[in-house]
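Human: I would love a firmer grasp of how sequence relates to backbone shape in proteins. Could you go through the record with me and say what the backbone is doing? Here is the record:
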Amino acid sequence: MRTEAVLFDLDGTLVDSLPLIFRTYRLVFADMKIPWNNNDLARLVGLPLKDIGKFFAGKAASRFEELYQYYYHRDLDLFTRLYPGTIALLEQLKKRGVRLGIVTSKGKTGTSRTTLFTGLDCFMDVIITAHDVKKHKPDPEPLLNAIKFLGTQAADTIYVGDSKFDIITGQNAGSRTLGVTWGLGSREELASLRPDGMIDRWDELNNYL
């Protein structure tokens, strides 16, 4: 089967930003005097910030989001790095003529800053953020929008992510799915969803093209 496009989640997949994300949530929880619950938060990371804010802060969700954005953008440059081998992989895929994109639940501003800071923007043919869709992961709308923009087919597309929401999104869209083992989701959790493959290193992605 020929692969025409590879689409990626951003945080925890291409970008090692999970330390920044959890650090930011700790600061917000402390400011708002919300009891810290790492287990609940870990279950929700990967959803849009507004949904997480509603879960933890209820009617004060807008303040939750405001504080998160402040701390996140204040510290982004200090705690955001690409995972090893990411640029080499993207260069290789580009040379093979594979279309590339990002489909993330992060907002447009955070996504733009992250991709510019890391240099990912130079490789992407399409970037879909939480602000570009009405429905969010695990609904297939974000991924299907990216596929439509590229003019490819879901069956000829691989969606790569580190969380259960990514795998379910890809399956809902009818694309092939790959789980990466270095991000948020454990190998056991991702494997239980039966993705088309699991990778421990970027070079293993070539086995699925």
